[in-house]
Amino acid sequence: MAHLTSRRGLLFGTAAVSAGALLAGCTSNESDSDDAAANDRPAADDKPGKKVTIGFAGPQADHGWLNAINENAKSRAGSYEDVTLEITEGSNDTAQQIGQIETLINKKVDVLVVLPADGKALTQVGLKAMRAGIPVVNLDRIFNSPQAYRCWIGGDNYGMGLNAGHYIGEQLKDKKNARVIELAGLDNLELTKQRTKGFDDALKNYPNIEKVARQAAEFTVESGQAKMAQLLQAQSKFDALWNHDDDQGVGALRAIEQSGRDDFLMVGGAGALSAFQAIKKDDGVLKATVLYPPTMAASAIDLARALGQGKGVSGLAEFEIPSSLTLYSAVVDKANVDQYMSTGFK
């Protein structure tokens, strides 16, 4: 079928025909479900369809969660016969990542998935891709302009803090004059501020609980150990600790073990395999962790494939994939840790 409009026109909403009608007419392998047929709408599925080349520009894997992002993307792409993944060497250097993305644009990939080193700094290259007719799936760190991406998918930093606060609140709700402390991440990042705000807002529901200390670390094992040691020295008595990141939590747990203290509960953040294993073993202070799931990279590949094949999302009535998807920050404790063990990152 001849396209009635350009790819650029579709991306920016200037098509002369409805995107839904065009996608329905041009899809090579529509879903066989009665629901999809009834709506005359192609839905994403696992059956091989139109071949799609996805360009992936991710981060430098210098942190467990970031490495898991890259691995989830590669693994998901490899599970599809109709997907070819053009993956760049991960970089935290803005100029280098812009160059890598421009190379993918010049290769004329069908769709781009980008986790920017700096969302603000990479907004222009996102716009460049969109204007070239290449839809962009913006992963987690958001571009400054919604015109720079077709779909954003990422974690809920505020919700992460909120759920950590409610979990701790429920554990301590019957304890008088309960005291909690917070081991945050990098304070110059907006995500850290959002996590702290969510945590503080949740604790407002528990008037018996006071946050008595907060220390910012750097999302590394070494900083987690050093900053936790300072907190332990300064706070002779507290009932709960929320640590923003399971990687720095490895260091925090070392400091706790060295102190010999076990008179409080700890809640982590992100979903590292080591945290899940410690929660399951249940012989230390770590009792739960709040997810910031790196599986979002696999879902980004799913969305990119659907875009490349002109499909919607199975289970939704709309012809198009959503413009944004915020993942839920589930609390994982001993009761449900087995369910999440396979998603834990190293």
TrEMBL record:
<keyword id="KW-0732">Signal</keyword>
<dbReference type="InterPro" id="IPR025997">
    <property type="entry name" value="SBP_2_dom"/>
</dbReference>
<comment type="similarity">
    <text>Belongs to the bacterial solute-binding protein 2 family.</text>
</comment>
<feature type="region of interest" description="Disordered">
    <location>
        <begin position="28"/>
        <end position="50"/>
    </location>
</feature>
<dbReference type="InterPro" id="IPR028082">
    <property type="entry name" value="Peripla_BP_I"/>
</dbReference>
<feature type="signal peptide">
    <location>
        <begin position="1"/>
        <end position="24"/>
    </location>
</feature>
<protein>
    <submittedName>
        <fullName>Periplasmic binding protein and sugar binding domain of the LacI family protein</fullName>
    </submittedName>
</protein>
<feature type="domain" description="Periplasmic binding protein">
    <location>
        <begin position="54"/>
        <end position="311"/>
    </location>
</feature>
<dbReference type="Pfam" id="PF13407">
    <property type="entry name" value="Peripla_BP_4"/>
</dbReference>
<dbReference type="InterPro" id="IPR006311">
    <property type="entry name" value="TAT_signal"/>
</dbReference>
